[in-house]
Structure formats: C-alpha cells, structure tokens
Amino acid sequence: MCGIVAYTGYKQAHPILIKGLQRLEYRGYDSAGISLLDGKVYTYKTKGKVSELESFIKNKHLKGSLGIAHTRWATHGEPNQKNAHPHFSQTKSLSIIHNGIIENYVTLKEELTARGYLFESDTDTEVLVNLIEDIRINEKVLLDEAVRIALCQVVGAYAIVILSDEHPNTLIAARKGSPLVVGIGDDEFFLASDATPIIEYTKNVVYLEDEEIAILTRGEELKITTITNQEKTPYIQKLEWNLSELEKGGYDHFMLKEIYEQPRSIRDSMRGRLNPITGNISLGGIIDYEQKLINANRIIIIACGTSWHAGLVGEYLFEDIARIPVEVEYASEFRYRNPIIGENDVIIAISQSGETADTLAAIELAKKKGATILGICNVVGSSIARVTHAGSYTHAGPEIGVASTKAFTAQVTVLTLMALRLAQIKGTIPKARFMQMLQELDRIPEKVERLLQNNGTTEIIAQKYKDVNNFLYLGRGYNFPVALEGALKLKEISYIHAEGYPAAEMKHGPIALIDENMPVVFIAPHHGIYEKVVSNIQEVKARKGKIIAIVTEGDTIVRNLADYVIEIPATEEFLIPILASIPLQKLAYHMAVLRGCNVDMPRNLAKSVTVE
Q1: Rounded to two decimals, what is the model's pTM?
Q2: Residues catalogued as catalytic
Q3: CATH number at residue 285
C-alpha cells in the first residue's frame, strides 16, 4: 500500500521522483523518502506527506541521474523518520524501497543478527536489504544474483527497487503480489507502483509479473528474469490514460472532480457495449464465457470495501434479472474459511485497482479448485486483469481520491450490462421489457448529469449535521447496498461513525440508538417496497430521529415526514443504486470539507490495498 517511483537515465532524477511521489501519494502518506546516486548515495526521508519531504530537502544535495523514492503506508513499525524508506544495508552500499510484507522477516532477522547485523528500524524492509547484502558478500555473486537468491528465501509479498553505489547506471526491481510497472523511454527507464508517475514521460510500459526481476541499465535493453533464473521477453504495452486525467482540473479535490466525472465514466463503461436501438449488448471480454455464466451452479462475487458493495448490487441484479444464484463474499474472509467451490462455479472478482491483495489471494484459491474466474477492474494490465480467465474493464479512468466514487458506479454499470446480457440469452425477460431496460440504462448518464447540477441540498445538510458523532443509513432491496456504501463514504473521509443497515432490520437493534440527536438517512425512492420504507421512516420519526431521505423527484409522502429530502430523477428500480449513491458521495464530501478533513487522503487509509 506504498508508492514506489524510480528513475535511471540522462535527466536529473530528483524532479521526476518528487513529481512521481506526488502522483502516488494516494497510495500512502505516513512518511516519504528519496535516495539519489551522484558519486555516493544521498538519502533524505521524513515523517509525513510528500510536501514535508520537499521542505526537508531544500538546499540539500539533489543531483544525480539515478534515484529511488517512496511514500509509505505503515505496516511494520510506526510511521516516523526511522522507519521511512529508503532503507540501507549495513555497509550503506545498497538502498531499497519496498511495498508489501515479508512474512518471515522475524526468522531472517534473527539469523542476520546472529551474524552480526544491526538494525536501525522496525521494518521488514531493512531485513530484506541486509539479507541481499549478506548473500552478495558471502556467496561472492553479482547484485542481481544476490537479489534472486534472497527472494527465493522470502515468504510474503513484495515490490522492491534497489540501487547500489557500485552500479551508477542500474536499478534492480522485482515483484510478487505487489504491482510494479516499468516505463521505457529513450535510453531511460522509469519504475512505479502504477502508471500515474510514468505517463508524463512515456506511454510504453511493461507490467512485471509475479516473481520477475527487472534489470534496468541506462542505455541498454530492459532485461527480465525470474527468481528461478529463467530469462523472459518483455511485453511492451501502450498506456491509454492521458495526463489531464491525473490533474484536478480546477476542482478543489480529486474526489469532487471524480464525483462530477461520473456521467462520462458511466457512459465510457457502456461505450461500444450497449446499443439501445438494436437491443444488443456485447461484452467482448467475457463473450467466450457467457455459457459458463448461464450454466453456472452459482456466481460467487469476491471483493473488498466499496467493490464489495458493488458486488452486493450485482447479487440483486443477477438474481432478479438473470435468475442466477449469487453469493457475495469478502475476499479477506473467503480464503480463510475453506469455502466449497466447484468446477461449475464462476467467480467474479471486483477491484478498482486490480491489485487488491486479499482479492488476488481469493482468486488463487478459487483457481486451484477449478472455478472459472472473471474480473472487473479499472486498470489495464493490473494483476487481476492478468490472472483471471477473462473479464471486463470499467473504463472509469484514473481514480486518485482514496474514497472510491466513480469506480463504484462504473462497477455497478458493468455488472448491470452483464446481468442484462445473461437475461437476454436466457430469455428471462420479455423482449419488449428488455428493450425498455436497455433504453433506460442508456439514459442514466444524462440523469446523473442532471442530478449533479443540484448542488445546494447536500451542502445545507452537511452544515446542519457536521458536528454529530453518529449516522444511520437505511435502505431495502437494491438500496440496502447503497446504504452500506453511503455509510462507508462518511466514515472514510469525515471520520464520523456511520452504520448501514437494512431498513426492516432497524427495529432488531439499531432502533435503540435513535433519539433527537441521531440523523438517519433513508434511501426511499418510489419503487418496490416504498410503503414499507415509509413505515420505517415513521418509526424513526416517532422516536424524534432526524430524517434525511433520498426520494424520487416529485415525492410528497416522504417529503412531509422528512427533515430534509434529496431528489433523484425517476428511473427503473434496478438502476437506482447508480443515482442514489451520488448524493451520498456529495454529502460525505461536504461533511469532510466542513470538518477540515483531508478529503483525498483520509487518515490511516490508502487507495490500493496491496497487503493483507
């Protein structure tokens, strides 16, 4: 969950590395550091954000055309200068940056301590760099061979980049379970945890595979081997993102920009896949697996966080529209409970980054049991895109804000397309009804655009309730996952405790919390079990709870009961989660801003969770 960036070439490395850290800071912001090689290694690191590192290194020696840099989300050792990366070997000859967790670091540390090594930090990373140095010295091998031998002894996940004062033009990198991308320029190389720091300089990239080691030497060809010493031919891909997508574009925060990008990101997730005139849905990535899905004993959706909430919406979609049984699992729990998986099960793994460690581990388990694995992710070339049998990209574009917004609605859009396509093949929906559903889905981006033009209500509500300690979010049917997602957004960025619950279950416990100080958000569009939700609202009102309701435009019944209402355009019930989630994103955003929280980089969180 840390950000790695490195450079070797003919330019000065320092400005490239700092800019790269700024682009990667959403991956971790507990501490930051940089090493530059200019005759000798100059290393600077500090607790806090990249801006604090920038201030710290002013007037320092910053020359050198080779360097590595890192922004950290702490796993081993508290976030302070001592534990910040880069870390040195004991002779100070090697400098390393690392993302991931070395699970057997305690054993390795004990062995190295017995051989006289001393450690300055509490990190597993310092253990790894000293292991590499110990092998290089005692086995008298070249650095790349020492790295290979060391990684054969390591248990866990890693993405590492190493520089040596003995090799002024060369970086050595390796990965297993944590992403690492190589950018190929003109006689220069870039390395990063994802493509965001690279796109400004080159669109030619190589995504390293698990247990691959890359040797990057200025002016030479990229060399890739495996930890079993097999040489690999680099597969060069072209980046699709544009630099403008990585800028705020006049918005105060990335999160706000990404909320307002949703008409486009939803449309892009449908582009080329949906034809509402001919009634055709074509998901090219999974077309060869449609019969597998139709004949599946069940679909198991695995995900974490916001993607798990999208998966819950998917459960309603697949069961309601396509009549296929679905289970939705937390990836982090799925792999540890000895799940029953058969060859006729289909796993759908959902992840914005495509690098979520728990989801990748769950995929590995399911593959071993013979299941078919499909992926839904946002990043071309990501690990999930490579390890699944097939899948669909969401095409939401880069999402920089840590709290996911447009990725959620894009995931729900792709799941909706999948469910409708399967329903079309199975014939579970009459053709006329199917055409109505397609045409309404096609209108959703326009309705999102209209919804986003209503700026005032969420700000007024945020101003009223910004100082409360608790929120309750309630929904039924398709809107229960929306309640969970709305509560998560508020927790993530405003640090207000919030809980999402099925509205009917409120009286089986949470109703005890309701008093005149408790705001309760109801997702109450005029669909399905509307009257039941109205009854739940009346139960809260009878206990003096403060009611905020998401309602269909023109609603009068709930308006007369609620303290505040937020209107959304009328749509089909199965599409309400896309519309209803957006005002809840805006509400969380405005609450966080008014409370002085760091919206894009909430405390203790990182964008891409690449450790368990």
Answers
A1: 0.81
A2: 2, 607
A3: 3.40.50.10490
